[in-house]
Amino acid sequence: MNTRKTLLAASLLAASALAHADYTFTDVSFNQLNWSDSTLEKTQAAPFGAKRNFQYLEAEGGMGRSWGDVYGFFDLENWNRNDKEMPAGDRRYTTKVVARFNITDIGGVPVKLYTHVYDTRGYNFFDQNRVLGLGTDLSFGKVWFKPFLGMHQELKYGTGAHRNGWMTGYVAGFDFTAFGQPFSMTQWHETEFGRSNYFVGVAQPNGVVNKRTGQNGAVSLWWNATKSFTAGVQYRYAVNKLGIAGNENAMIYTAKYNF
């Protein structure tokens, strides 16, 4: 089964289970991503990894049951243009599926089998990350925290599939009320370490350097205006990731319709 069929099968499996879940959520959103001026300037001068501001449409959903939980999204980036002559402006398709399966409970702390597949592709480009490991769920009052650690495999255009060290990270968040309105804050973060020689190269304006560790994530503030509508602002960051050495950052502005 090829990659595209595998991702489709995983998405259909998740969707078919939604109707019988203990909790579910689905939404669609419009998003505008604006890189910082320093990121744009630095990446345009690099031999690869150029960045440009762009819009993307997203559909996402999740479910939880007694056996575990599933989350996934599909993004259509640069939906309003398709500039094949400019790699930073080509239309891209991004899918992520995360599944966590309950294994046991140790002292009241659940232990879960953690899996995720992240796939992004465009004109003359694709990159797929696969992670298999362990995770858990922790909560402290209104704060929830879901960390993981796993083996990392990467399939990339021009290199094939290879073991790429390890990945650790988390998703976290909490709900609160301010000015009489419901808000929430969330964060996702990933750290890659022990990268293989196939994937250590990241660009800088004067060439390419090798970095064994990379950071990737976002911090978000959401205004849950109504049951159906959510507005959000996200601070997107990366360090020695997304093809570029050093720091990169952006702001993402989101309008979301919840089903």
UniProtKB/TrEMBL annotation:
Q: Which residues form a coiled coil?
A: none
Q: Name one GO cellular component term.
A: cell outer membrane
Is Signal one of the keywords?
A: yes
Which keywords belong to this entry?
A: Signal
Protein's recorded name: Ion channel protein Tsx
What residue range is the signal peptide?
Answer: 1-21
Q: What is the superkingdom listed in this entry's lineage?
A: Bacteria
Q: Which family does it belong to?
A: Belongs to the nucleoside-specific channel-forming outer membrane porin (Tsx) (TC 1.B.10) family.
